[in-house]
Task: inverse folding
């Protein structure tokens, strides 16, 4: 990608700008370096709750009129809380983007946290947590993650533990906001139809006078190396059985992450940068598990993360089949990639698919802006620029090497969801919480 410029205001705000003049649109993102990984016991879910409160408005932009203001101008806006960040965005017609710029500058410092709105939102978030609990994969994922991480903040779900959602106070939320919402803890990105010099000048006018705060001391504890396989069993009313296996893998800034991305493509099919996907019916695990009617589905997940996280394999077990059968078949495929090289044809196909997915997933200005902010948060924005070239550099030998290094029984947590008699609900995707 060409044309990205990086700037830093005197108050510490990092600004990334990329002109793209093929459509009269601009996407504006403000990402804060705070997510669920930084939450202590007793305050799990606080980052997500603060995100909700940011939509309650300020004196200048009351929450009751913001949706109308943005919709009237033909724009869209939203926010997301992840393990590693909280982010807000507006995508607007180019001549109306000033509304988004002013809105984010204002709520960086002037958000209101009234007792009444905090209590109202407590009910909403508890209901959101209860809705997620209708999914067997939520329960299974929560238990697997908690077993895989004993120390690190990746231990808990983004939405938080019910005990904390019931007890956190207005002051807890407001103090979290004041500690982390400041220009020197934020990354601002604009992609679209603008002139860089004029855009930077306007950002300086709106954000430059916001004072830098004391650099937040982010709560983060390194996870000790796992020294043996861990297992969890979840038994709840439902109609379907699931198997999840999670291996510890390095942070996304590590070279091995790209090798693991190719390995995942070979095993379960590639995942797109912006959530896109390509049919996985030619992948190894599809052929070994789905075509043999052991499972109805199988998928793999490799998330980009600041700290070492997990590579997940999840299988939906067919009625009449057992966890033992599916786990044995999956282990057979894991052992194959650990002990034998993949073919050059498989490697070439994985790279071709990666190029296509990258193009599909990042063609919109909003996707590009998000990924630039995302990459800058855990490494540098150039991680995003070099994404395809780093995948292209992976060799057949690299794939076997990372399979041997990370896909070891001693490095994994195995979770079984065992259905009990009762009604079940549709599965949900809990990878990331969105407003």
Result:
């Amino acid at each position: 990608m060409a044309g990205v410029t990086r700037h830093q205001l005197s108050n510490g705000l990092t600004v990334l700008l990329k002109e793209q003049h093929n459509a009269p649109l601009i996407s504006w993102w403000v990402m804060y370096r705070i997510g669920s990984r930084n939450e202590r016991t007793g305050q799990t879910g606080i980052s997500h709750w603060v995100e909700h409160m940011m939509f309650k408005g300020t004196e200048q932009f009351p929450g009751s009129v913001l949706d109308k203001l943005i919709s009237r101008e033909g724009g869209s806006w939203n926010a997301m809380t992840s393990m590693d960040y909280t982010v807000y965005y507006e995508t607007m017609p180019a001549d109306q983007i000033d509304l988004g710029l002013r809105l984010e500058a204002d709520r960086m410092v002037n958000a209101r946290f009234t007792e009444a709105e905090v209590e109202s939102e407590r009910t909403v978030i508890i209901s959101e947590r209860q809705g997620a609990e209708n999914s067997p994969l939520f329960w299974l994922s929560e238990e697997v993650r908690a077993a895989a991480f004993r120390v690190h903040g990746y231990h808990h779900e983004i939405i938080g533990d019910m005990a904390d959602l019931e007890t956190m106070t207005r002051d807890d939320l407001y103090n979290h906001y004041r500690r982390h919402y400041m220009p020197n803890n934020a990354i601002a990105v604009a992609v679209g139809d603008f002139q860089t010099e004029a855009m930077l000048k306007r950002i300086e006018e709106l954000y430059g006078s916001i004072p830098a705060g004391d650099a937040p001391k982010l709560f983060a504890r390194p996870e000790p190396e796992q020294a043996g396989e861990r297992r969890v069993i979840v038994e709840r009313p439902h109609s379907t059985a699931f198997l999840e296996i999670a291996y510890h893998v390095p942070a996304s800034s590590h070279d091995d992450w790209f090798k693991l991305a190719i390995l995942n493509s070979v095993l379960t099919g590639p995942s797109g940068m912006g959530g896109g996907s390509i049919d996985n019916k030619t992948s190894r695990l599809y052929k070994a598990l789905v075509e043999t009617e052991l499972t109805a589905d199988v998928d793999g997940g490799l998330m980009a993360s600041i700290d070492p996280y997990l590579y997940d394999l999840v299988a939906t077990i067919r009625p009449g089949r057992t966890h033992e059968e599916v786990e044995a078949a999956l282990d057979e495929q894991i052992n194959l990639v650990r002990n034998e090289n993949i073919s050059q044809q498989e490697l070439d196909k994985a790279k071709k698919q990666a190029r296509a997915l990258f193009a599909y997933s990042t063609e919109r200005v909003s996707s590009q802006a998000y990924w630039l902010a995302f990459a800058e948060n855990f490494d540098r924005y150039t991680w995003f620029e070099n994404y395809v070239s780093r995948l292209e550099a992976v060799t057949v030998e690299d794939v076997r090497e990372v399979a041997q290094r990370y896909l070891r029984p001693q490095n994994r947590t195995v979770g079984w969801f065992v259905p009990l008699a009762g009604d079940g609900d549709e599965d949900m995707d809990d990878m990331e919480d969105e407003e």
User: Anything to note?
Assistant: The domain at 230-425 is CATH 3.30.830.10 (Cytochrome Bc1 Complex; Chain A, domain 1). The chain has two domains: 4-207, 230-425. The mean pLDDT is 93. The longest strand covers residues 241-249.
